[in-house]
Here is the input.
Amino acid sequence: MTVPVERSRSRRPVTWLTLIGVLLLPAVIGGILVGALYNPTDRLDNITAAIVNDDKAVELNGQLVPLGRQLTGGLVKGADDQPSNIDWVISNDEDAASGLEDGTYTAVVTIPENFTSAALSTRPGETPERATIGVQTAPDARVVDGAITAQLASTASSVFGTELSSQYLTNVFLGFTTLGQQLGTAASGAHQLADGAGQAATGATGLKDGLGQLSDGSAQLATGAQQLAAGATPLADGASKVAGGATSLAGGTREAATGVGDLAGGANAIADGNQRLADEINGIADQIPPEFAQVATDLSQAAPQVNDALVKAAAALQQAADDCTGTPEQCDALRKAADDANAALPQATATVTKIGQLAGDAAKLPAGIRTIAEANQQLADGARGLAGGATKAATGLSTIAGGIDGVAGGASQVASGVQQFGAGAAGLSSGAAQVASGASSAEDGAGQLADGVQQVATGTSSLADGLDTAVQQIPTYTDAQAQSLADIVADPVSATGVSDSLFGIAAVPLLAMAVLWFGGVASFVAFQAVSARALTSRRASGLVALRGFAPAAIVGAVQGLLVAGVVQVASQYDWGDWALFALVCIAAGVAFAAVNQALVAVFGGAGRWIAAIVGALAVAANIVSTVPPVLAGLSSLLPTSPAYSAMLGALASSGGVGAGIVGLAVWAVLALIATTLVVVRRRTASLRTAAQPA
Here is the structure.
């Protein structure tokens, strides 16, 4: 059964079988390509690959860490969101090598023995090393098999590495929190140390003031004791004279009772002298402050406490110097102050001890002076009583003479005691002067100590403020915050909208364009581009060209509809997008029929060769963006370019459908014009051609 369509290179008409074959050729080719290539990741289990785990586990905190085994398990298990996974076989080096050679395995993933040790080399004290895995593809593997295997292994390694980085960074961020807490504790301790140093400086200043008062009081004590010693000498001389007079008086009394009146007068004189001496001694005693004895006693008792305080202050200063965490200048100043304090400590404690001893002796001075004054007062009273008795009782002169002898002895004792008192007062004056000098030296040392401790307090306060600033600048994180931040830092950039399919949305328009183009080529392998009866036909040249174009155009339109149907069955696009895509496919089939007709009409059999090159160039230029610019430029000038752009715009909603259809229409019109010109040329016969028999 035939149809009224001329067969190419033959006068026989085209049969329905040929017509059906031409119609179905693009649909069959497109169905085969789409079925074989669409969503290859859903059929990963058709790929068999081996995993060789040579990794050696590493002991960490008493536990073995087998990261190679974990990575192997992750590859075998696959991803939760991936419906299919490669058929992984856990193997060894020998089996993997033989399987790769005989085709049992498409690829082999090898985890080296140092994988775990390298992955954990970020621990402190170790040299960081990158953990790597090896991927080897069989020589006879399919084109994309190696890429799929390498991509899965690379993705698993990347995710595994990101997890390790996240754990490491989590520990780092939590370390910031711990560091901030420790610095906060150090800052609190530094503040407390600064407060203690300030209090020590205040105490050292108070010690300086107290030593100044001690120096002044000791100087006054030395002056008073000196005056007391000076007054004791005349008192001793007077007592000696009293003793001599009493002896003479006793002898005179025995010789003459008539000298009683003189004795009474002498006794009154003695009483007056003793009274004056008692008054002078009382005056000296009155010059001593009432609190002198208590102050001297307190000073004597405080001496050990002062020594303990000095020892503790020097030890605290030395401890602060040893634990110094400030700047080098602050630490050097603190150590110098500690050295000076330790050097001055023995002299200071010895001086304070001596001061305590002298103060204890001085505490007894007021009571002794009062005792002497009372004795002189009693002596004065007794002399007055003696004078009165001498006046009233002459008969007792003998008895009085004996008493006067006793008085002479007592006066001698008084003179001796007063001389001893003068010597003691002179010693007291000298000791008090030494106390005053030592207290003055101690006052200077206390002033230096106060200055040094104040510098320590200032430096420690600056250190505490610096630590507070550091604490404020160090971030702190909770466990959840540290984990979240570590996850982001370990994988800071992510891409959305990236498909993991090797057969993307642009592949369907490319395959549809290619099969429709080669469908147009097939049409004019079977059909005649220009009717063999063009020369004898009475129709216009344009109608003759259209007569050859019409069957191919109808076939191209049907081819476009069939290809669109195959795509919809495989891809399940939205019906609105598919309808627009089907319209573009029909337009492309018609336009490709016109272009292939023109190529065969103009170039003959070479036109089919040119059409094949055009199809190959169109496919090659649209597979990858790394195509050379020359080929990309040539591809954009081909009739396949607007068809591909329109198909892609219909499925991807990227626009350009209208421009693509207009481009196809322009190519179709230009092709029909070229075919018409060929018809015109063929209908112009020369005389030689006309003379030849038909």
